[in-house]
Write a structure and sequence with these properties.
single chain, 219 residues, alpha/beta, Rossmann fold, 3-stranded antiparallel beta sheet, 9 helices, globular, binds cytidine-5'-diphosphate
Length: 219
């Protein structure tokens, strides 16, 4: 199914991947894959089951049998709406730890490929253009300065009624960047042929427009 168009959007945390990918998919009438949610769902399940985090085969088994479904922007885990629950900081941090396990990445591989359906797909994450869809029609590497990203996260958290501390956010972000870029398997690196987009001084709408423009130029 390599003829079905895929746009990959990879980048570090809080660079705006989710926001941009979601809107681009909407505009084009494409399907949308938030691959990070799969690592978050695995992490949430592991937490709830009290799984032994050193047992990578046990964690991979959880990943392989995720009873997940996506419906109209909501994420269901065996019929329970976990859209909010997987956004907790605790879940995000554990997600980034289990994402370094090769068995877990392998377990989620086929599930991700299955999202490539007509008329097309926009997929966001860390390795969409490098590992999962290396033959994507358009690859984007979205980034922004660590300060800009910390500001964005801060605003998101405050808007949702959570408390947040800028200093903690900055160090948390740097730790996550470090783990995601330096792990042995599927590290966060720009894919070959990726378009680079630094959005430090851009609005989300401007970033969305740039991606749509690149896509239109393909034809
Ligand atoms: O929202 P944020 O960018 O912080 O994270 P996310 O995209 O929801 O992903 C959570 C974690 O899953 C990341 O920190 C990555 O370590 C991992 N992940 C990954 O390894 N590969 C992907 N394709 C997507 C996420
Ligand atoms: O998915 P990722 O972790 O990369 O980021 P996100 O969850 O989409 O969060 C990015 C936040 O920054 C959202 O609240 C956006 O409205 C905002 N933002 C953006 O995405 N892009 C810009 N150029 C400026 C702000």
């Amino acid at each position: 199914n390599s003829h079905i168009p895929v746009i990959t959007i990879d980048g570090p945390t809080a660079s705006g991947k989710g926001t941009v990918a979601h809107k681009v998919a909407d505009k084009l009438g494409f399907h949308f894959l938030d691959s990070g949610s799969l690592y978050r769902l695995t992490a949430l399940t592991a937490l709830r089951r009290g799984a032994d985090l050193r047992d990578e085969h046990a964690i991979a088994k959880l990943a392989e049998h995720l009873p997940v479904s996506f419906a109209g922007g909501e994420i269901l885990l065996a019929h329970e709406n976990v859209t909010q629950a997987i956004r907790a900081e605790e879940v995000g941090n554990l997600a980034s730890q289990i994402a370094a396990l090769p068995t877990v990445r392998q377990a989620l591989y086929a599930l991700q490929l299955g999202f490539r359906k007509a008329p097309g797909l926009v997929a966001d994450g860390r390795d969409m253009g490098t590992v999962i869809f290396p033959n994507a029609q358009l690859k984007v590497f979205l980034t922004a300065s660590v300060e800009a990203r910390a500001q964005r996260r801060y605003k998101q958290l405050i808007d949702k009624g959570f408390s947040a501390n800028m200093e903690d956010l900055l160090s948390d972000l740097q730790a996550r960047d470090d783990r995601d870029t330096h792990r042995a398997i599927a590290p966060l690196v720009p894919a070959e042929g990726a378009h680079f987009l630094d959005t430090s001084n851009m609005t989300a709408d401007q970033a969305i427009e740039q991606v749509l423009k690149w896509y239109a130029q393909l034809k």
